[in-house]
Amino acid sequence: MGKLVLLTLLGAGLALIGERLVAIRRRTNASREVEPVEPQNCHLVEGLGYGSEDIDVLPSGLAFISSGLKYPGMVNFGPDEPGQIFLMDLNEQNPRAQVLNISDSFDKASFNPHGISTFMDKDHTVYLYVVNHPNMKSTVEIFKFEERQRSLVHLKTIQHKLLISVNDIVVVGPEQFYATRDHYFTNFFLTLFEMAMELHWTYVLFYSPREVKVVAKGFSSANGITISLDKKYIYVADILDKNIHVLKKHDNWDLTPLKVMQLGTLVDNLTIDPDTGDILAGCHPNAMKLLNYNPEDPPGSEVLRIHNVLSEQPSISTEYANNGSVLQGSSVAVVYHGKLLIGTVFHKALHCVL
Ligand SMILES: *[C@@H]1O[C@H](CO)[C@@H](O)[C@H](O)[C@H]1NC(C)=O
Ligand SMILES: *[C@@H]1O[C@H](CO)[C@@H](O)[C@H](O)[C@H]1NC(C)=O
Ligand SMILES: *[C@@H]1O[C@H](CO)[C@@H](O)[C@H](O)[C@H]1NC(C)=O
Ligand SMILES: *[C@@H]1O[C@H](CO)[C@@H](O)[C@H](O)[C@H]1NC(C)=O
Ligand SMILES: [Ca+2]
Ligand SMILES: [Ca+2]
């Protein structure tokens, strides 16, 4: 009798695991293949071979690029070296990426940059806020950008007990930002469990020196975050739920949900077209190929544009799609006056004239 119960439990356990494995395959679009959509005039960016996780562009066309992220469960082809921040001038015909020098006061050896966001104060000084994972912790680093010296001067490290597993930030004022938490558990296997069980335990946090609070929750994996051109709305990508949440921002920094747009692809980082206000979304068409990397059948890339985000019927178009033969694991895309720059989690970066 005891054996029968044990066997029944074992069978039920295996069935549950099997069912959850199927759920993971479904959630990661594991059987999806990509139909190519490629603008005419694209070329790979020199000097950016090992990832360009996040990109943020100043109104002047200078783009900051975070590179060299090391993340559990993610492949990394780079040399075993710390991460770096690159600069590109998108006004140039064939822009090249240039490493920014970082001041000596900062611990460069453990630099592991993830999401970034720029902030310009009233006297036009540019600050770069960088999500950092030194020794797999999460901090937010504030740098001042010295354009003439092409360097970053480290000003401050922000740590807080709610700033855990931070993916991306969007700066909204001096030392004020929204941040996404992309998973609840910090242990890699528990993270897989969290994904398989479809827990919705991640959130968006508001940080300021005076107040830190959770302002939106219930995301499966809150990822890219950005703000609308009029600064009234916050857009959050939920990568595992394959959607983008539009939230209204209030004077006290609270957010209220407005709507959710389903995209059917795993949305990573979000940026805004400065000319139109459209959202550009760097997406993973098949996340199983990203997690379970096979050079013979690599993960592809996909960039979507969401037009008229706040209208009743936003329309979605594909700016770029490739099966991985050119670009693998797109995580972010920016447009700047007719030019498109696509970054990836660990692969190259592509520059296209639209
Ligand atoms: C980078 O910064 C350090 C310290 O500020 C300085 O010693 C070094 O010369 C700089 N390197 C370059 C290439 O500018
Ligand atoms: C872009 O998304 C990737 C994947 O989640 C992440 O590693 C990276 O930090 C993101 N970058 C930004 C700026 O959000
Ligand atoms: C990818 O996932 C979305 C939503 O989960 C689904 O609607 C779509 O059919 C999937 N695509 C493929 C090709 O599996
Ligand atoms: C990707 O597409 C190209 C043609 O665009 C094709 O030659 C190649 O075999 C495809 N690769 C995979 C892995 O499907
Ligand atoms: Ca960002
Ligand atoms: Ca991201």
Automatic annotation (TrEMBL):
User: Which Enzyme Commission number(s) are listed?
Assistant: 3.1.1.2
Q: What does this protein do?
A: Capable of hydrolyzing lactones and a number of aromatic carboxylic acid esters.
What PANTHER family has UniProt attached to this entry?
Answer: PARAOXONASE, SERUM PARAOXONASE_LACTONASE 3
Q: Which reaction does it catalyse?
A: an N-acyl-L-homoserine lactone + H2O = an N-acyl-L-homoserine + H(+); a phenyl acetate + H2O = a phenol + acetate + H(+)
Which first-to-last residue range defines the signal peptide?
A: 1-15
Q: What is this protein called?
A: Paraoxonase
Query: What family is this protein classified in?
Result: Belongs to the paraoxonase family.
Which parts of the sequence bind Ca(2+) 2? D54
Per UniProt, where does Ca(2+) 1 bind? Answer: E53, I116, N167, D168, N223, D268, N269
Query: What does the PTM comment of the record read?
Result: Glycosylated.
* GO-annotated biological processes: carboxylic acid catabolic process; establishment of localization in cell; lactone catabolic process; negative regulation of superoxide anion generation; regulation of cellular response to drug; renal sodium ion transport; response to toxic substance
Print the keywords alphabetically: Calcium, Disulfide bond, Glycoprotein, Hydrolase, Metal-binding, Signal
Q: Where does the record place the catalytic residues?
A: H114 (proton acceptor)
Q: List the disulfide bonds.
A: C42-C352
Single GO MF descriptor? metal ion binding
Gene encoding the protein: PON3
Q: Which residues are glycosylated?
A: N269, N323
How does the cofactor bind to this protein, according to its record?
Answer: Binds 2 calcium ions per subunit.
Keyword Hydrolase appears in the UniProt entry: yes
Keyword Signal applies: yes
Q: Tell me which GO cellular component terms the UniProt record holds.
A: extracellular space
User: Self-association or partners: how does it assemble?
Assistant: Homotrimer.
Q: What is the lineage of its organism?
A: Eukaryota, Metazoa, Chordata, Craniata, Vertebrata
